[in-house]
Structure formats: structure tokens, C-alpha cells
Amino acid sequence: MAKSPKRSGDVAKPDTPSAAEIEAIIHGSHGDPFAFLGVHEAGKGHVARCFIPGAETVVAYNLAGEQLGELVRHHDAGFFSGPVKLDGVLPVRYRATRGDAEWTVTDPYSFWPILGPMDDYFIKEGSHLRLFDKMGAHPIKHQGVDGFHFAVWAPNARRVSVVGDFNDWDGRRHVMRLRRDTGIWEIFAPDVRAGATYKFEIVGPHGELQPLKADPFARRAELRPKNASVTTAELEQAWDDEAHRKHWASIDQRRQPISIYEVHAGSWQRRDDGSMLSWDEMAARLIPYCVDMGFSHIEFMPVTEHPYDPSWGYQTTGLYAPSARFGEPEGFARFVNGCHKVGLGVILDWVPAHFPTDAHGLRHFDGTALYEHADPRQGFHPDWNTAIYNFGRQEVLSYLINNALYWAEKFHLDGLRVDAVASMLYLDYSRKEGEWIPNEYGGRENLEAVRFLQQMNHHAYGSHPGIMTIAEESTSWPKVSQPVHEGGLGFGFKWNMGFMHDTLSYFARDPIYRKHHHNELTFGLLYAFSENFVLPISHDEVVHGKGSMIAKMPGDDWQKFANLRAYYGLMWGHPGKKLLFMGQEFAQWGEWSEERSLDWNLLDYAPHEGMRRLVRDLNLTYRAKAALHARDCEGEGFEWIVGDDQDNSVFAWLRKAPGEKPIAVICNLTPTFHERYELSLPAAGRWREILNTDAEIYGGSGKGNGGRVEAHATGSGWAKAGVTLPPLAVIMLELEQ
To answer: What are the positions of the active site (predicted)?
Structure first.
């Protein structure tokens, strides 16, 4: 790095740079432009050197507009140099002319570095937890000049330049400074404004020019099909969510009513012309809907930038940028703030397992396998044709961990649902023998991914105690939702894929055969409290030919609706937090498609509106009754009443919480109507029927217990009751006294 010029009125002798160095600047091959361009001491004075393509004359000025000297053109391509009278401090500006045209260029090579030795130290150590404030593009005022600071990690590159509409995409004009200890390249680009498009032009280690790369830390991107990064102001949002965040940071989330509405932002609803809603338009519609429906959280499928709509966001090329499909990043911040003001949490699907191989993305970023493993047995995902992050590189871990912290800090997100955790944990995931590399102990466990997930959860919960991390993990990996210090992965919750699989398998059967598969509903209770579970009916269950939830149900239309109402009643009465994908709350017939809005017109029909009312009432009941949620993740909150009546396909259990009246959940999963089904309840007295999925208001037959059931003491501590069980229905009873 060139020394900072001293204040001096002396003028140097005429500058005579070598032809070789001039040629290197003109062809973008100079090894260290900062050591050559800009202002440098020359004897008792100073010389200035600049490369301004197209200029015929150049005059140097200071920031006050005082002339410092006229420069000589040494090459027709636009290389100038000459002595300057530096009666002040850096930086300098050049006034260039060509014919009648005149323009001003602030010299990017007359600015000092932004990153410092402490940044280098923490980056190298892997403990820098504010990389999102240092890397990428940030607006700053540096040495009296407004502009953007750019920083990117490319340790094996021979040259890195930031190119954009501010320099005609010319990689010779903003060649960046290499910080050799970290492999980070940086430059302050003066006079660049918010809204400028940019990428990085990278020359690989062997001199090969790479495809232009989007900024891995870009906080905004162009709307597809374009894919450049976009400079943007620092996020400013007047947050009104202190009470919301304080609440979630002060309680045990396992003991709260958590009911999640999973949403694909591009297709929940659309404008009349078929275009996607902006965040503000979504806020006006989606927030009131979720509040009315009683959901506690909205979980968005990935809204980070991605090039291909049918990927649903799971193949992201911009982990730090909310997608331009829905407007500017500030719109997303306003949406989250609006949710928090009315008590709704916001969870983001997060994809640290893999990334797409688009040319402008992370793959072979600096001409080498940088973010991914070089060996395809570790670095290529056969299921999705994507690249797998190299969790053994500290810089990659820092990139991902900082991203998790970024969403929590900058956008106040309440949680991250981590996608495809199983694919991260196993080295042989979707691979045949010989297609994977064992770990250092010869096993199939990806120990580097384990350490990454533990570190991510450690830092996320340590920095943001109110956050919720949820693992989509489909195997029996132990302690997914146990603390790191106890040997767990550190997640708050885990999706219960077994519940989803077994219950859907059971309900898809004709009721006449269900008695032969009774254990599909009882088996899950053997492990229901081994993790902190979320019961997921997600988008994955209603795509790729699987059919919608209502279409999965057997029987005629009446039985389909009755079955689905019973399914939801069972799910909301079962231990575990709840997640339901959009459209399934009103029994959309068609499979979900990202190309169009949900079929909201179905709500004009009574069976669909009845289903929506049922889900709303299930949410409100689940939230109001602590017995249904306060011990969702603990065995003391569940007790079987009837678990072995396979002949009638009847199930009954208690949901309990300390100091709360118990609630009996009773499921009759055949069309047989039981006018007086004898069962035991834990106390004598009147039990109130607080929910009946067969109620007429939900589209049912209206059969039930007239609102109450009398249980009579038997002397054994439990009471006997004759309960009316509607066909294909679930009822919930609560002791009145």
C-alpha cells in the first residue's frame, strides 16, 4: 500500500512511468494498482497517476476545487500522470475532457483501506460475527467523500474488480486491494449511489477470466431474469416490536401455543393481472388473515433471492437479499414490523445445505472450489444438481453463521426453519457405495456439518434469545433439539416427519381397513417427547403428484371433508406444535402451484368455508387452553384413555398441564356413529364439549353431545361416561368444575 502523502507545496519532477506498468494497467493485469495509481511521493513532491478511458485531457483538483496540476497523457487508452501540488490531504478529483464533453472522476486509488487489522484478526479466527456490516457493499462517507465500500472474499484470485453501471462494467477501473492475511479484496468506490447495479470481475489463479459474479453478501439484487447485485442504503426501520420480542425472549417456547402458517409469498394471493404482491400489499391482506385465523407465526418458504421461480426459493443465489420479486428490502422489514405489532411471529426457511450452480453464483467463485468441496463426492448434490457448502472451511461457516445472525438482527426475524438438515448430517445421503468419502473415523456422519449447526445455534440463541430454530430432519439423529452443551445440535424444535408420514398413511386408507393399521396412530407416541416436535403438513405434502390434503382423503365428497376435519382435530389435539401449508386450511382441491394464486373462490362454498372455520377454531382453542399446548414437548402432558380399540378405530387421550383442567381428545375414525360409547374420564362431573369437528357450522352432520357429557364416579378414582361419537370426527371435552 502506498504511503499517505504528506502536506506539501513542493512539485515533483515530471513523471515517467514504465511502459510495462502502463500496459499492465491498461490491460487489467497489474499486480498492485494501489502501489502505482493514485497519488505518490516523488522526491520532494508528489505525482498523480490515473486511468480514465476515453479522456483526452485530465486536470487534478482537491475536494475544495483547487487545481493541483495538469496531467500528461502517456497512452491513448487513457493513462495519465504528472506532478501535483498537494496543498492539502487526499483524496483528489480529476476533471477529464474529450472534445466538448467534460466529466469528473474521484480517484478511488487515493483512499485508505476501510477494513482494519482487528477485522483481519477476527475474520481469520472465524469469530467475526458482524461480517454483514463489513462485507458486500455498504454506503459510507470516507475521507469526506460519499460512496460505497465493496469487500469480497476471493483468496485464490489473481485480480478482483468491482464492475457496474457506474464504471461501464470496465474491470480495469476499480481493481480492488487484496488483504493477503484473509484473502479479502476491498475498495472504496467514491460517488457511487444507492441503486447502482454491480458484480465482481474475477481473474482466476491461472489468469482465466471468470463469469461475472454476484456479490455473496449483496443486500439487494435485480429482478429476475437479471441477476446483478444492487447497491442499497443501510436498512432503516422504525421498529415497534419491543413488547413482542421481549415476550419471546423471556419465556420457554416449548410451553407456548405455536401454530405456524406456511406461506409461499409468490402464490398465496396475486393481483388481478396475475403479478405478485409487494410486501406492503401482502401485509394488508396476509397479516389480518393470519390474526383472524389464530396462527401464531407465518413461516415463509425462502424469500432470499433466487433465479428460478419453480425452485420455490430453495436454490438461492443471494442469501442476504430479500427477493426483488416483492419489492425493496425495506418492504420486508415493514412486513415483519407489522406482524410483530399484532403478535405474529415470522419464520424464514433457510437453506445452508447447498447452493445452485448458476454461473453468477458461488460455484468456483474465484476460479477454484471456494464455497464448495472440490471433490464431487463431497461437493455435488445428486438430488438437486447443486453444490454443497464446504463446512470444513472456517470462512464458509462464518458466511453462513453471519447470515443467520443478519436476518435476526436486521429484520427482527423470530426464527429460522433450516431446510434439508438430514442431507447435511450424512456423508452418504442419496449416494451409493463408493460415491461418498467417510469421515476421519471411517463413519458416514458429516462431523463438519454437525459442528456448523452447533455453532450456528449457539451464536443465534446467544445473540438473540427470543429466536426459534427448527430443523427439517427426517432421520433418528439423536438430540436434534437438545442444547449444544448437552451434546445436541442446539435446535429449538424439529419437524416430526414420522407423525406426518404415519398419519397421512392411516387417513388415506378406507376406514374399513383402518383397524388393521391402528398402530400407525399409536406408534408415534412412543417417541413423541424425544425431541421438541413441530407437526408439519407442509408444501412437500401437496406437490409432485401427492395431491392436496382433501384429495388424499378416501370416500365420497362428504367423507373426504369429514376425514380431513377429523385429521385436523387429531393433529391439534396431538402433542407437538402445529404447521399447516397455505390453502389446506380451506381444503383446496388442486395441488399447489407456485405459478398462480390459491383458489380463494372455494370459500364461497359451505364445505370449504366450514373447513376454514374449523382450523380457526382449532387454533383459538389450542391457544386458549394451556392443557393443549403447555406440555406439548413433555410426557406429563399426555395420557392415553383408549389406545387399543382397533375394532372401532377409536382413540382417546388426555392433554394436561399443571394447574389446568385436563382436556379429553376423542377420535372416531370410521363413519360408524356411536350414540353411547363407554369410556373413562379422570374425574366425575360435567364435561363440556369445547370442540366437535362434526358440527354443522364446519360442514358436518351436527351429531354430538349437546354441549356436555356427564361422567359418573365409580369408586376407582376414574369416572365412567357414555359419549356420543359422531362419524369420522374428533371431539374435545373439558371438565367444567
So the answer is: 419, 472
